[in-house]
Amino acid sequence: MKFTIQRDQFVQSVQHVSKAISSRTTIPVLTGIKIEASYDGVTLTGSDSDISIESFIPKEIDDQELVTIEQEGSIVLNAKFFAEIVKKLPEDTLEIMVTDQFLTRLTSGDSVFNLNGLDPAEYPRLPEIEEDNVFKMPKDLLKSLIRQTAFAVSTAETRPILTGIHWAIDDGILTCTATDSHRLAMRHAKVETNSEELAFSNVVIPGKSLSELSKIIDDTDELIDIIVTDNQILFKSTNLLFFSRLLDGNYPATKNMIPNHSKTSVKLESKYLLAAIERGLLLSREGKNNVVNVKTIENKELEITSVTPEVGKVTEKVHTLDYSGEELRISFNGKNLIDALKVIESTEITIDFTGAMSPFVMKPADRDHMLHLFSPVRTY
Amino acid sequence: MKFTIQRDQFVQSVQHVSKAISSRTTIPVLTGIKIEASYDGVTLTGSDSDISIESFIPKEIDDQELVTIEQEGSIVLNAKFFAEIVKKLPEDTLEIMVTDQFLTRLTSGDSVFNLNGLDPAEYPRLPEIEEDNVFKMPKDLLKSLIRQTAFAVSTAETRPILTGIHWAIDDGILTCTATDSHRLAMRHAKVETNSEELAFSNVVIPGKSLSELSKIIDDTDELIDIIVTDNQILFKSTNLLFFSRLLDGNYPATKNMIPNHSKTSVKLESKYLLAAIERGLLLSREGKNNVVNVKTIENKELEITSVTPEVGKVTEKVHTLDYSGEELRISFNGKNLIDALKVIESTEITIDFTGAMSPFVMKPADRDHMLHLFSPVRTY
């Protein structure tokens, strides 16, 4: 194998596929990036067996030559060292050449790295996926869907299915749901399907996979193809393939959890609520329970309090823009509400309470594409 | 105690004095910030018994009222919580009032914090320092002196004296020296003294103290007063006092360590040498020994190599701007050289070697105010 390549392009591809590589893998060849040179271009692959990422650098783009292939071939090089090295090379191009067995020489200007490679024949093959059921959405929408749900997945290993995000398509509408059983985030979006009959309901993608995907797709309205099989999902964009394993098991029936009535309804400015709860948590952080108490008071105001006996007490007042229904006293995990407020892009939100002991729902006031559900905390 | 104060001013003072406060102190009152209100203004104090910082906010500056004092008094409030709270308050002003015993109420708009304070009578007094021997220098020069020496102090507790920076004044010239016994950084500067006889030679200031000081003084040419006593040093700027304990013990006689001849002398562009050594260390990082090998080769070039058997080998060539003397092969800790190169502001540097087994000296090529000394590493 021997080729010369533009450094910037190569660095970006190396960074992309590195996102799939875990330093804790027990399979030595997976600590490396597979580099494969053919006369069409160079393909890089990284994988931790849950996620696999393939990035292709074509020989040329728009008549600009990116790669000069002198000899086809492949090699696996330690990802951690390699990613650092290519970033710091002195020239705009670099040459990679497998010299002897798996020994690889990387040259850029007056810098020469001789690296011990691994046998590419040992590298696992990527899954082969039939592209029957494809749907599409703009990349920036996909990034939003991930950002607005992934924060709510469970980080505990006790119920592995809750570490994933549930995706379902029905009637051209994708619904993404994440919950750790104390809070739930749900987001709808219209997607493009190649068949009106495309529908599925029990696809659970590891939250970590989607978070990594989100880091490597750019924030444009270019469409990305998505293909779901029994145990894999593939995201396919120009010169990039992103595979993730799906989680096994049944996702809880979250629809039944969402109350469809309200006893106390308030409308608030997001930023004032956010700031008040952030201050409310300043003293409670030490105790790590993050509980804040909310009480309706006169003049259509909410009083937010939090007490940490050794440290002190904080009291905040927040004006509501709208208020209807019963008086209320409720306690909940303020940190969970903050997480949700940070992904709601609307300036105003509504909260519907159904009593002190029941879950409550927060939504943007101006749109219906998103919903956040929170369990109250019993404080006595 | 009761006063109202401008939040921005107060936040900055709280941040300054917080730099002295350690969460690991065993003296409870030192986890707090002492706040003292008098009719002149508000004084904040933080201390970890090594460093003490006092920040004063006067009643008014340039006819702008900063503080409205209603009642004099003092209190000690937990620094960690307090610094977070004042940063996040909603309004431009805040009111602080000691209500009952040490209970303190902090109010800003619709936010009210009731905090448990500590008895200010338990707070230690700051040292009293006679201001006989004062010298002065611009703040930005002081910051440079610290930045260009503090990195070289020892972080090991085995020889405590080496965790400090040695300061000596002779003939109006301040010499700052730091060494961890493998490398040494020295910097001279002219200072203003109020007496021609001002001279001292065994003042050793903890590196940590100077690093903290550097964070709170601004990068201007305003003068700062410096007063040295037997066991304390005081830095005195407008509305700010910074005290540090001095280290006990004798600092090594570093002057004798510096070779005054040269067997091989090279002149190089700093940035190329820096980049080449950084790449040289990319593979050796795993081993943590950071050793690079330098060899003079033909065409007035240096060859820099580093080998990590499991990973590979890197070879770099660096052109010299000037080269004289014997051929040379030497090995040294590349990380130490990088640290020094990063604080040398000149684009060109000279290195004088005195053989493979002797310490060598690096200096800016255009100025004589700074010197870095490095021990070689034996590699066989």
What topology emerges from the helices and strands here?
Two copies of one chain form a homodimer.
Chain A (H helix, E strand, L loop, with lengths): L1 E5 H12 L13 E7 L2 E7 L3 E8 L1 E2 L2 E2 L1 E5 L1 E6 H10 L4 E8 L2 E6 L2 E6 L17 E5 H12 L13 E7 L2 E7 L3 E8 L1 E2 L6 E7 H10 L6 E6 L3 E6 L2 E6 L18 E6 H11 L10 E7 L3 E8 L3 E8 L2 E4 L3 E5 H10 L4 E6 L6 E5 L5 E5 L6
Antiparallel strand pairs in A: 1-7, 1-9, 2-3, 2-8, 3-4, 4-20, 5-6, 9-10, 10-11, 12-16, 12-18, 13-14, 13-17, 14-15, 15-29, 18-19, 19-20, 21-25, 21-27, 22-23, 22-26, 23-24, 27-28, 28-29
Helix pairs in contact in A: 1-2, 3-4, 5-6
Written account of the structure:
The structure is a homodimer of 380-residue chains. By secondary structure, chain A is of the alpha+beta class. The first copy, chain A, has 3 domains: 2-122, DNA Polymerase III, Chain A, domain 2 (Roll), CATH 3.10.150.10; 136-168 and 191-250, DNA Polymerase III, subunit A, domain 2 (DNA Polymerase III, Chain A, domain 2, Roll), CATH 3.10.150.10; 258-374, Proliferating Cell Nuclear Antigen (Box). Helix content of chain A is 17%, strand content 45%. Chain A has helices at 7-18, 79-88, 139-150, 207-216, 270-280, 334-343; strands spanning 2-6, 32-38, 41-47, 51-58, 60-61, 64-65, 67-71, 73-78, 93-100, 103-108, 111-116, 134-138, 164-170, 173-179, 183-190, 192-193, 200-206, 223-228, 232-237, 240-245, 264-269, 291-297, 301-308, 312-319, 322-325, 329-333, 348-353, 360-364, 370-374. Chain A starts with a strand and ends in a 6-residue tail after the last strand. The mean pLDDT of chain A is 94. Chain A binds chain B through residues 78, 81, 84-85, 88-90, 110-116, 275-276, 278-279, 282-283, 310-318, and chain B through 78, 81, 84-85, 88-90, 110-116, 275-276, 278-279, 282-283, 310-318.
